């Protein structure tokens, strides 16, 4: 695609990507008041567009991903985009996922490119040695857990590490508070997760979930992470005021949930904000994110900085501040073990992905050599 040679100073028209905003950006207005702003369009994305793209392209947001098509929304409303028309790159990280922003040609509607992301959530695909994308451009995350037998502190810490690694804000929502005689036991269990805002709600009651709207500002994209049955779809339905997603009762014997959400989808809420519902994920292998683990376990990370030896493994080494805190009862052994587990998992998955990339490069080189030999033989025959 050829780029326009028109200089920026010669452009005086208003930008189609925000009411009251010129291409030069000198007269900005609150982006959330524009149609694209309601979909989460921000200066971060607008600044990526070239002058040619301002003129000839339109940005759309991926609202849902199906097997062969994308559901997208933009200034012109919602439409379906065939994946056959999208030039997918080989790397999983460069394929469109829910909440991505794409550029399409105005006239043909053809795919142009994927915009740079402000954040990206990914995991190791269950049973496969590859990365699976969860969502992109998420501002905040509601980590959803329920006040019953399915409450799992180690799982919450895993979700928190994933959120911190992506650079998004994290909030914890405890559902089924109405079915629990005392939520205090669950709140007490969270004492190690400092600076994590927590709300206990009844996901089926509008008055109870109203307090969540403080985290759902207009134009903000908020994802929900949690296992099946914790009430994510119920939260979506109550916040939106309509039946956006199916719900089902949990199993009474173990409080385990049934999968009702089959795909990740982004919903625009009536009062502002965009909420992303996703299938429950019990398997959430961390593909990367040591910095996310450090942020989620900042108390252990701070203790590790005080150890006598910089390469301390926090076992039997002398002068280990982590072990000293454990012995004093200031650090929970479960939390320490989970911290170690997540770091080992990241290291293992990083090695696996590195080996896979090396195999892919070797296979690509083999194909190129075979093609080169085939061309040489053909030229020799000629």
What structural class do the secondary elements suggest? Answer: alpha/beta
Order of helices and strands: HHHEEEEEEEEHEHEHEHEEHHHH
Task: Tell me the number of helical segments per DSSP (H or I, 4 or more residues long).
Answer: 11
Oligomer: single chain
Quick one: CATH superfamily of the largest domain? Answer: P-loop containing nucleotide triphosphate hydrolases
Overall mean pLDDT: 80
Major sheet attributes? 6 strands, mixed
Regions with pLDDT < 50 over 5+ consecutive residues? Answer: 1-32, 248-252, 254-261
How much is the radius of gyration in Å?
24 Å
EC number: 3.6.1.-
Binding site for Zn(2+): 307, 312, 314, 320
Family: Belongs to the TRAFAC class YlqF/YawG GTPase family. RsgA subfamily.
Enzyme class: hydrolase
Structure, explained:
The chain has 3 domains: 8-114, OB fold (Dihydrolipoamide Acetyltransferase, E2P) (Beta Barrel); 120-277, 3-Layer(aba) Sandwich (Rossmann fold), CATH 3.40.50; 290-357, Probable gtpase engc, domain 3 (Ribonucleotide Reductase Protein R1, domain 1), CATH 1.10.40.50. 32% of the residues are buried. β2 and β3 (77-82) form a beta hairpin. It is globular. The protein starts with 34 loop residues before the first helix and ends with a helix. It has 11 helices and 13 strands. With 382 residues, the protein is an alpha/beta fold. It has helices spanning 35-38, 43-46, 51-56, 153-166, 184-189, 206-209, 232-240, 290-296, 298-304, 321-327, 333-381, and strands at residues 57-65, 69-74, 77-82, 101-105, 111-114, 120-124, 131-136, 140-146, 169-175, 198-200, 221-225, 265-268, 274-277. α8 (290-296) packs across α9 (298-304). The strands form 3 sheets. Strands 10-9-8-11-13-12 form a 6-stranded mixed β-sheet, sandwiched between helices.
